[in-house]
């Protein structure tokens, strides 16, 4: 069965690029080489960041559409899908880095999880850099381009971390509370389990057993940290995968229902319409 959408690594998404763990370029240069590829719905195996300095258009991240404006910055994590719909005047900076890029550099391998824009939730990943921070952000990105050109990759790592801290400080939500590390770990493990088992495990109590906690504890944790129940997180992941599969014209709705382990096509269609407001066939038509 062919995949719903193409999934690119750093080298395959950018024509002629050879460094498999890092890409840092000006947007105008990047688009000249890869315009057609990035304007189609696709997935990433890497972390992705763009800062727009000028231009307009729109982009979709996991099927949510956002208007593009100058001084907007957005992040994506591996596994997310998106497409661009830019006007010709767009410019800025593009950075890709692999999951392995910081692995031997940081003692805490989960360090990036502390940043809200690496949550995998598109609503937390698209921000506008305030006027007072734009000069600092631009200066950091220029340094990253310079150090990348000189293949000084440890310096790039330091500058990227400085950039992440700057963005979190200037764009973070007001009143964001500090989350204890143990709670972060449980939530991250739950989300990883969902990504691994969402086709076969549908109930929060089954995930709670895998995490060695009670269903009530899991549900309270999700509501406290994300404002959603554990069941809603599982449902959202199933719906996201259904949407990704619906982009594949070679798969029927019946095949998608079977892939997602629904009892039958009608049950899947009712489930999809209940939470999306339209049927799977209507969603597919709207993609055109």
UniProtKB/TrEMBL annotation:
The keyword Transcription applies. Signal peptide: none annotated. InterPro entries: AraC-bd (IPR003313), Homeodomain-like_sf (IPR009057), HTH-like (IPR037923), HTH_AraC (IPR018060), Tscrpt_reg_AraC-type_HTH (IPR020449). Keywords: DNA-binding, Transcription, Transcription regulation. It holds the Pfam family HTH_18. GO terms for molecular function: DNA-binding transcription factor activity; sequence-specific DNA binding. Residues 188-286 form the HTH araC/xylS-type domain. SMART domains: HTH_ARAC. PANTHER family: ARAC-FAMILY TRANSCRIPTIONAL REGULATOR, TRANSCRIPTIONAL REGULATORY PROTEIN. This is Helix-turn-helix domain-containing protein. It comes from Chitinophaga lutea. The lineage of its organism: Bacteria, Pseudomonadati, Bacteroidota, Chitinophagia, Chitinophagales.
